[in-house]
Design goal:
The structure is a single chain. The protein is an alpha+beta fold and 414 residues long. 44% of the residues lie in helices and 12% in strands. The strands form 2 sheets. A 7-stranded mixed beta sheet has the order 1-2-3-4-5-6-7, covered by helices on one side. It has a 3-stranded antiparallel beta sheet with strand order 8-9-10, with no helix packed on it.
Length: 414
């Protein structure tokens, strides 16, 4: 830590200290006493009601300040580039004494001889934003390769990931964030997907601060987990238990709409009454709020319309969102995980995520004979490639159909 410069003792008048029998140099803030720095002499220093500065004439530039609280701290003074600098070396303790202070001074002088001013480097670090401040700069000012500002959806996801996983490092400066700190954060995250999102966000923030800084950090982290396509969807038995449990859940309407529309959790959280046409049976999601940056129209089933009609009749006047929240800054629910865990426990369903309701709707469509194209349109995929993870369901449906026809023909003798 760089501290404000204080006048060097050699520039202050000296007076005698009749109590210690030593020569002292009087300053406006404290007296300066000359002693030889040894463990024994430093341990013998007792705190007074004032701050006292000690120096050893045999060790140029190093001083020891004893505070009224009894804390004793080593500093180093040096003129670098016609500027008086003062460096914090460390607090005196069993592990840090005169020898350790001199080693730190040697490192500082080594940098000076290479025409580097450690104080300038320290000041540059102090001037850096914290990661929390950098997040705000990133979401406000970052531009994509096409020159566009970040989409509200992207900003929301970045803020969510940072809020969930980066609270412990939010005060760190970018140049001080190392692989050890990031690995400690990742160890606390159970989901591989969330680990990758956290690394991606931190890398983006660092690259936004200084080009290449985030890329360098990723290289230091080593191998990261690779995501496998998740194909989990509810079986018929699980669906029945789900439908029974959802009736008893506080956010049952939310989870049912997730299943009936196949839309992403974030879009459902942000669902606005202004975007829902109950009479027509359509929900319009603006392009800025979709993952593929294209406006999407979701045709609502009669069951979904019934849920929305009931909610609209019971809503308070002026409420903007379909699923409002009195506590969330956004005005709508954001993380329905506690109610989701409660629902799964009630329904006795394991290893199911909210996003798997989307997969479940896709499996219903495929097994009912609908094409990949229909699935893609229903789920809002930008291309059929994103819908290919459901291709195995098509093969299963075809196989079952062939088996059924063959069994029927053989039973009837052809």
């Amino acid at each position: 830590m760089f501290l404000a410069y204080t006048p060097h003792p050699s520039r202050t008048p000296t007076v005698s200290n009749p109590h210690l029998g030593l020569m002292t140099e009087k300053t406006t803030k404290s007296a300066t006493i000359t002693i030889k720095f040894t463990r024994r002499s430093i341990d013998a220093i007792k705190p007074t009601g004032a701050r006292i500065t000690y120096r050893d004439p045999a060790i140029k530039g190093i001083i020891l300040i004893c505070y009224p609280s009894a804390k004793k701290t080593f500093f180093f003074r040096r003129s670098i580039g016609n500027r008086d600098e003062r460096f914090l070396l460390g607090e005196y303790s069993l592990l840090f004494g005169p020898e350790q202070a001199q080693k730190k001074v040697a490192a500082i002088l080594g940098a000076v001889y290479e025409n580097k001013n450690p104080a300038d480097i320290r000041r540059q670090v102090q001037a850096e934003p914290t990661l929390a401040e950098l997040l705000r700069s990133y979401t406000d000012n970052h531009r994509t390769k096409s020159g566009r500002k970040l989409a509200p959806r992207t900003i929301g996801e970045a803020e969510s990931v940072f809020r969930q996983h980066c609270g412990g490092i939010q005060g760190i400066k970018p140049s001080k964030l190392d692989a050890i700190s990031v690995k400690a954060v990742l160890r606390e995250i159970n989901s591989d997907a969330q680990k990758l999102k956290t690394v991606s966000l931190l890398s983006s923030l660092l690259n936004h601060h200084e080009d290449g800084l985030g890329t360098a950090l990723r290289g230091q982290l080593g191998a990261l987990p690779k995501l496998q396509h998740r194909e989990r969807h509810m079986s018929e038995e699980e669906t029945q238990r789900f439908l029974e449990a959802v009736e008893r859940n506080e956010l049952g309407d939310f989870f049912m709409l997730a299943l009936l529309t196949g839309q992403r959790r974030k879009n459902l959280c942000e669902m606005k009454w202004a975007d829902v046409d109950i009479e027509v049976g359509r929900w319009t999601i603006a392009r800025a709020e979709t993952k593929n940056r294209q406006t999407m129209s979701v045709d609502l089933t009669p069951e979904a319309i019934a849920i929305l009609k009931a909610r609209k009749q019971n809503r308070l006047v002026g409420i903007k969102y379909v699923f409002p929240s009195e506590t969330a800054k956004s005005g709508h629910i954001t993380e329905p995980h506690s109610q989701w865990r409660k629902l799964l426990k009630d329904a006795q369903i394991e290893n199911l995520r909210i996003h798997d309701l989307r997969h479940t709707l896709a499996s219903w469509l495929i097994n009912s004979g609908h094409s990949i194209d229909v699935v893609g349109r229903a789920l809002g995929h930008k291309s059929n490639a994103a819908s290919r993870i459901y291709a195995h369901l098509t093969r299963e449906t075809v196989g079952n159909a062939v088996a059924g026809v063959v069994a029927d023909k053989l039973k009837r003798g052809g």
